[in-house]
């Protein structure tokens, strides 16, 4: 009865250990699947961030090129603006010269003749017309430059806004990536805890299996002991460890050799010599004299 109870207890312990290990393995597989999904999301987010960074770098390069073009146009405009006062100064000097020329024509004054050739009125008029044409051309170029600067500024404004939006998206993606990394770290910690718990349960299961084997060996030893006790039991119910003796013989004279019991006059079986026999000397056999 005790042996049956021990075997049942061992079987129950084995079933409980197997159930615990199976549940822990299922939980570990679920955690690994969640971790794989998180890693896949992180890879997608990192690819999107890389793509956004490339687009942002291209936009920043375009903005730098446009800014360089704007600066060059502004420099040209400044140069043209610096030429305008010079043109006005030349116009003023030309007017003063014309007035002085008219006054000289109207009145005779003492003058000192200078060496060189004075341009004629026709040449002066041509020079004035040429200066006016150059001035108009410069003003037209200045207006074109200003229009080009306005157009470049208007075109670069959406790019600047788009770059700011990309920076905001980049910040939001970085925040999401940091959150995902934090979640992955926490999941790794939980997975390590589950792995440690599973290792402890596996160690406990191994110790319980060892204990079960020891119990089985004890049960087998008890069964063999019980069988030995049954073997040592005589038909009359007594227990003995003595060597079994024959209680029947087969007659050689009968045609049908059947065993016959000895009855109460069974042959004597001498016991094994004891330790005291070493103190007894064997008798010396004397020869017979006739």
SSE order in H/E notation?
HHEE
How many beta strands in the DSSP annotation? 2
**Strands side by side in the biggest sheet:** 1-2
Q: Mean pLDDT across all residues, rounded?
A: 79
Q: Which regions have little confidence, pLDDT < 50, spanning 5+ residues? A: 1-17
Gyration radius, to the nearest Å?
62 Å
What's the helix count?
A: 2
Q: Helical proportion?
A: over 70%
Biggest sheet overview: 2 strands, antiparallel
* Net shape: rod-shaped
Strand content: under 5%
The class by helix and strand makeup works out as mainly alpha
Termini separation comes to 76 Å
Topology at a glance:
Layout: H1 2-106, H2 121-231, E1 248-249, E2 260-261
Antiparallel strand pairs: 1-2
Region (Disordered): 251-290
Protein name: Coiled-coil domain containing 146
Keywords: Coiled coil, Signal
Keywords:
2 helices; mainly alpha; disordered N terminus; two-stranded antiparallel sheet; 290 residues; Coiled-coil domain containing 146; signal; coiled coil
Gist of the model:
With 290 residues, this protein is an all-alpha fold. The chain has helices at 2-106, 121-231; strands spanning 248-249, 260-261.
Task: Write a structural description.
The protein contains two helices and two strands; from the N terminus they run H-H-E-E. The chain has a domain at about 25-100 and about 130-230. The protein has a two-stranded antiparallel ribbon with strand order 1-2. The longest helix has about 110 residues, at about 120-230. Residues about 1-15 have low confidence and may be disordered. It is mainly α. About 75% of the residues lie in helices and about 0% in strands. The radius of gyration is 62 Å and the shape is rod-shaped. Helix 1 (about 1-105) runs antiparallel to helix 2 (about 120-230). Keywords: Coiled coil, Signal. This is Coiled-coil domain containing 146.
């Amino acid at each position: 009865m005790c042996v049956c109870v021990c075997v049942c207890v061992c079987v129950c312990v084995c079933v409980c250990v197997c159930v615990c290990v199976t549940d822990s393995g299922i939980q570990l597989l679920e955690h690994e699947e969640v971790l794989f999904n998180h890693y896949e999301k992180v890879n997608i987010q990192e690819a999107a961030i890389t793509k956004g960074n490339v687009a942002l770098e291209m936009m920043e390069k375009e903005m730098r090129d446009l800014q360089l073009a704007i600066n060059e146009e502004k420099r040209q405009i400044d140069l043209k603006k610096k030429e305008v006062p010079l043109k006005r100064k030349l116009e003023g000097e030309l007017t003063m010269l014309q007035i002085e020329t008219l006054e000289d024509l109207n009145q005779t004054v003492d003058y000192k003749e200078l060496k060189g050739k004075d341009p004629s009125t026709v040449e002066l008029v041509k020079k004035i017309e040429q200066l006016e044409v150059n001035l108009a051309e410069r003003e037209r170029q200045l207006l074109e430059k200003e229009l080009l600067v306005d157009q470049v500024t208007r075109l670069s404004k959406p790019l600047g806004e788009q770059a700011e939006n990309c920076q905001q998206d980049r910040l939001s993606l970085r925040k999401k990536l940091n959150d995902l990394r934090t979640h992955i770290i926490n999941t790794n910690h939980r997975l390590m805890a589950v792995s440690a718990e599973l290792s402890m349960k596996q160690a406990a299961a191994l110790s319980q299996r060892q204990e079960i084997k020891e119990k089985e060996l004890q049960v087998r030893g008890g069964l063999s002991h019980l069988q030995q006790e049954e073997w040592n039991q005589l038909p009359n119910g007594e227990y003995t460890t003595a060597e079994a003796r024959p209680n029947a013989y087969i007659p050689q004279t009968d045609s049908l050799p059947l065993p016959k019991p000895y009855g109460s006059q069974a042959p004597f079986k001498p016991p094994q010599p004891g330790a005291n026999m070493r103190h007894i000397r064997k008798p010396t056999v004397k020869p017979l004299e006739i």
